[in-house]
Write a structure and sequence with these properties.
Elements: H1 6-9, H2 22-34, E1 40-45, H3 51-63, H4 77-83, E2 90-94, H5 101-110, E3 121-126, H6 133-144, E4 150-156, H7 164-167, E5 171-175, H8 180-194, H9 200-210, H10 214-228, H11 235-242, H12 247-258, H13 262-274, H14 279-297, H15 309-318, H16 324-341, H17 347-359, H18 367-382, H19 411-417, H20 420-434, H21 438-443, E6 448-452, E7 455-460, H22 465-470, H23 474-486, E8 492-496, E9 508-509, H24 510-520
Parallel strand pairs: 1-4, 1-5, 2-3, 3-4, 7-8
Antiparallel strand pairs: 6-7, 6-9
């Protein structure tokens, strides 16, 4: 006998074999038990969720000579005839190829004849949304008042495309996507019956890839069985078949992105391409990895995280380098990428561009990107990785970009030239900065200031510092701290360290003025350890 695909061989024969659609099965069973069988049904749902299988089981059940709890016995002549597709009482029509008005008229004419055997003639019209408008109209009258021995079962993946007048004449049942545990349990049962050696991790990955469709899962399972040639089906073998990537590689890739190491990230991507990995699947796996990582950081239980215990533990460690806002930003960019890749012939270019965007959110201007940049900066600052200009040791004080006018000027002349507001700010600057949290305190290192017509201009040396203060609550905290320490309310404007108004001729380094003031306040015999508190 010719080989039969698993999804065909293990198609449900009775309601007990239908998995994941318990509410629908219960309703149909009760109708059969109570003899309250409708004349028209509409089965809606995505592919592979059991619409046609349930329709065939229902057709067998209503004609079964000895039904068992509303389910067909599978042994009577009627059940065998329907199962072997030789029954005249069950007519299955593919509306995708028989969608004309003449096809529907022929069906309506046939309904005038009683079934040759059994009690009901059942018409199963698959992909009913493909019918033309005239075909729908030809079906309306018969669908509303068919003979008592006729049942229509309409199946569709696009109920929104079915005429409302058709839907109103049917009992509608929506088939939901199957959960991963449901698909895994069914595949495990089939594997045991077929003597297929497969590990649980492989089954979970197949189920996740199937997207809630049992038929898709069994088709992938069939493919993996052929690939393994009688050997054990493992996660890695399934990944090879589907072009997927090991979770540890995904974790390494995300760590490179979180650390803004675009060179390493692109090299990992190139290695995946050389290994024959499918880029669309890689992006899909990345999104799923980030979803699990987000749940881990949110403290969700492992039963909700579709990953092994070892992977969850690894994610907890990886989550230390990434915040929730960064994860949400990454998911948004990758989701947009996934949608774009399905319509593009340059998938590699799109993925490389996306990786560079993720590594360098400074190129982005939307709110999610700005939040991600702030999170990255705080992570670096908290870990002591303070960015220093090229050629300057990390942690060394940065010189303000604005050209200070004190070059060659006497310190006394400099102090006398300062406006009163600037002088008061300088006198209290060290205390102001030390009162702020670690991240903004480091951001203000090397800051410069100059008077402007309606306040003061504060120059921030760190390249992301201006965004940090402008797009968070930190600016309000800084303003309140300055007002608290100086007794004056300053109208503060922000500028990047490399930008100076009017050529920057009146901008001075706050740290420089603080040093001058501290030097002038020194007295003989003072304890050097107390200098920082003066």
């Amino acid at each position: 006998m010719a080989y039969q695909a698993l999804y065909r061989k293990w198609r449900p024969d009775g309601f007990d074999d239908v998995k994941g659609q318990e509410p629908i099965v219960t309703a149909l069973r009760n109708q059969i038990i109570q003899g309250r069988i409708g004349h028209a049904y509409l089965f809606c749902g995505t592919r592979g969720t059991g619409k046609t299988s349930v329709a065939k089981i229902f057709a067998k059940a209503v004609n079964c000579e000895h039904p068992v709890n509303g389910s067909p016995c599978g042994e009577c002549e009627s059940c065998r005839a329907i199962a072997q597709q030789r029954s005249m009482n069950v007519v299955e029509i593919d509306a995708a190829s028989n969608n004309g008005v003449d096809n529907i008229r022929q069906i309506c004419e046939e309904t005038a004849y009683h079934p040759a055997e059994g009690r009901y003639k059942v018409y199963i019209i698959d992909e009913v949304h493909m019918l033309t408008a005239s075909a729908f109209n030809a079906l309306l009258k018969t669908l509303e008042e068919p003979p008592e021995y006729v049942i229509f079962i309409l199946a569709t993946t696009e109920p929104q495309s079915v005429l409302p007048t058709i839907i109103s004449r049917c009992q509608r049942y929506d088939f939901r996507r199957l959960s991963i545990p449901t698909i895994v349990d069914r595949m495990r049962f089939i594997a045991d019956q077929e003597n297929i050696d497969v590990d649980d991790e492989a089954l979970e990955y197949i189920a996740r890839t199937a997207g809630g469709a049992m038929r898709d899962a069994l088709s992938i399972f069939d493919q993996c069985q052929a690939f393994c040639l009688g050997e054990k089906i493992t996660y890695q073998r399934v990944a090879d078949v589907l072009g997927a990537v090991d979770p540890s590689v995904l974790a390494d890739l995300m760590r490179d992105i979180a650390h803004a190491d675009a060179d390493s990230a692109l090299r990992r991507l190139n290695d995946m391409i050389l290994q024959g990995r499918d880029l669309t699947q890689v992006v899909s796996d990345l999104i799923w990895y980030l979803r699990n990582l987000m749940l881990v950081k949110a403290g969700i239980g492992e039963d909700m995280i579709e990953a092994s215990h070892e992977q969850v533990e690894a994610m907890k460690k990886a989550g230390e380098d990434i915040t929730e806002d960064m994860i949400l930003y990454y998911i948004r960019v990758l989701s947009d990428l996934y949608n774009s890749m399905r319509r593009s012939s340059q998938k590699r270019v799109l993925v490389e561009v996306a990786i560079i965007r993720l590594c360098h959110p400074a190129a982005e201007t939307d709110l999610d990107a700005l939040r991600s940049r702030v999170d990255i900066l705080e992570e670096r600052l908290d870990s002591g990785q303070f960015a220093a200009p090229a050629g300057q040791p990390a942690g060394a004080a940065q010189k303000p970009a604005p050209a200070a006018p004190e070059s060659g000027a006497k310190e006394q002349d400099l102090l006398e030239a300062l406006p009163e507001d600037i002088m008061i700010l300088c006198e209290n600057w060290e205390e102001i900065r030390n009162s702020l949290p670690e991240a903004p305190r480091r951001m203000l290192q090397g800051a410069a200031v100059s008077p402007v017509s309606n306040g003061i201009m504060l120059y921030i040396q760190d390249k992301f510092g201006r965004y940090y203060f402008e797009h968070t609550e930190k600016m309000r905290e800084l303003t309140e701290m300055i007002a608290q320490k100086t007794g004056r309310k300053f109208n503060i404007h922000l500028a990047d360290g490399g930008v100076r108004p009017d050529g920057g001729s009146n901008a001075v380094s706050l740290d420089r003025i603080v040093d001058i003031l501290k030097t002038r306040l020194k007295t003989p015999g003072q304890n050097p350890d107390q200098e920082g508190n003066e």
